[in-house]
């Protein structure tokens, strides 16, 4: 049973959520103690269930990709990638100004994992490589003073990316410090797009540790559109070169999103030359998640509306 449903059932039995039995009366008399669920109607219980179902849709999935199906490697035959996450290295230029930021980045794939265990693969970074080109923008205050220990939070308003496959070893990424200086890629002759996408939502935090320097973090949820024909437009510009759908064994790309999480860079790989912050080899983790089903979203939305109406009726009475 999910936590949301368990809490709703406890409340329906007359126990305040998060309190011990017998503490309900004190919780009800506290105007500052948050919302206490004295009882839960079937409508509210349905809302709890729909929230739980929506939350489970974003869990990391085990996926299988096949590099041999698109000609990236032939040794060994059918060298599928089966994992539930993969690590990338981040090379980026971030420009701050006027309460906003813009970012241009290249992400190079380091390894695939199941849980925290590396998946043994033949060919990755030796006969072929996978990397992404990313551009993003959002709102965020200016960097905090160096060594202050302070952090500034922000959110992404846009992001677009394209993941490429290259029949070469890991490409070389070169930073170009300066306002809006996008990283450049070499050693990627013959690279072609696999999938592309745009922002669903995302947040970022920039911290100025007491010891000096800057440490940015980011988490994003991105859509995923596979290259299924040469008519598919890439979010970063241009078009797919052909049908690469054979790369995606399971799940089908139409049913998944890309989740970029735990992206961070220590002070040893960041340089601030105002208004730019350059990241030379930060890291992060990428997972695959189900796209929430429209039915779940409809149930969630209608439940919220009905619950709001119910509360308004109680307030008027």
Written description of the protein model:
The protein has 317 residues and is an alpha+beta fold. Helices cover 17% and strands 40% of the residues. The protein is built from 4 helices and 16 strands. The strands form 3 sheets. Strands 3-4-6-7-10-11-14-16 form an 8-stranded antiparallel β-barrel. Helix 1 runs antiparallel to helix 3 (42-56) and helix 3 (42-56) packs antiparallel against helix 4. The chain is globular.
Topology:
Blueprint: H1 3-12, H2 24-29, H3 42-56, E1 63-65, E2 81-83, E3 85-97, E4 100-114, E5 117-118, E6 129-140, E7 151-166, E8 172-174, E9 184-186, E10 192-207, E11 215-223, E12 225-226, E13 248-250, E14 256-264, E15 270-273, E16 276-290, H4 294-316
Antiparallel strand pairs: 1-2, 1-13, 3-4, 3-16, 4-5, 4-6, 6-7, 7-10, 8-9, 10-11, 10-12, 11-14, 14-16, 15-16
Helix pairs in contact: 1-3, 3-4
Query: Please, how many helices?
Result: 4
Count of β-strands: 16
N-end to C-end Cα span: 34 Å
- Strands across the major sheet, in which order? 3-4-6-7-10-11-14-16
Decide which structural class fits the backbone.
alpha+beta
Helix content percent band = 10-25%
Which consecutive residue ranges, at least 5 long each, have pLDDT under 50?
1-57, 295-307
Q: Could you tell me the radius of gyration in angstroms?
A: 23 Å
Brief overview:
Helices cover 17% and strands 40% of the residues. It is of the alpha+beta class and 317 residues long.
């Amino acid at each position: 049973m999910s936590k949301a449903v368990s809490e709703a059932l406890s409340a329906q039995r007359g126990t305040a959520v998060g309190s011990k039995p017998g503490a309900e009366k004190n919780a009800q008399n506290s105007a500052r103690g948050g919302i206490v669920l004295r009882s839960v109607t079937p409508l509210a219980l349905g809302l709890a269930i729909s929230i739980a179902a929506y939350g489970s849709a974003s869990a990391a999935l085990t996926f299988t990709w096949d590099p041999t199906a698109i000609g990236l490697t032939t040794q060994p035959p059918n060298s599928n990638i089966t994992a539930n996450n993969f690590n990338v290295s981040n090379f980026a230029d971030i420009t701050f100004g006027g309460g906003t930021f813009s970012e241009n980045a290249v992400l190079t794939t380091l390894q695939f994992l199941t849980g925290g265990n590396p998946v043994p693969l033949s060919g990755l970074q030796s006969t072929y490589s996978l990397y992404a080109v990313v551009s993003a923008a959002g709102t965020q205050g200016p960097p905090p003073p160096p060594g202050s220990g302070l952090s500034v939070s922000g959110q992404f308003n846009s992001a677009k990316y394209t993941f490429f496959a290259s029949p070469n070893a890991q490409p070389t990424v070169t930073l170009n410090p300066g306002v809006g200086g996008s990283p450049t890629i070499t050693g990627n002759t013959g690279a072609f797009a696999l999938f592309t996408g745009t922002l669903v939502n995302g947040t970022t935090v920039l911290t100025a540790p007491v010891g000096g320097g800057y440490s940015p973090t980011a988490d994003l949820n991105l859509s995923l559109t596979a290259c299924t024909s040469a008519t598919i437009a890439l979010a970063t510009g241009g078009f797919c070169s052909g049908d690469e759908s054979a790369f995606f064994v399971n799940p089908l790309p139409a049913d998944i999103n890309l989740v970029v999480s735990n992206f961070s860079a220590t002070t040893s790989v960041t340089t601030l030359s105002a208004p730019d912050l350059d990241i030379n080899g930060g890291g992060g983790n990428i997972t695959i998640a189900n796209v929430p089903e429209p039915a779940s979203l409809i149930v969630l939305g209608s439940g919220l509306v009905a619950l709001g109406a119910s509360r308004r009726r109680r307030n008027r009475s």
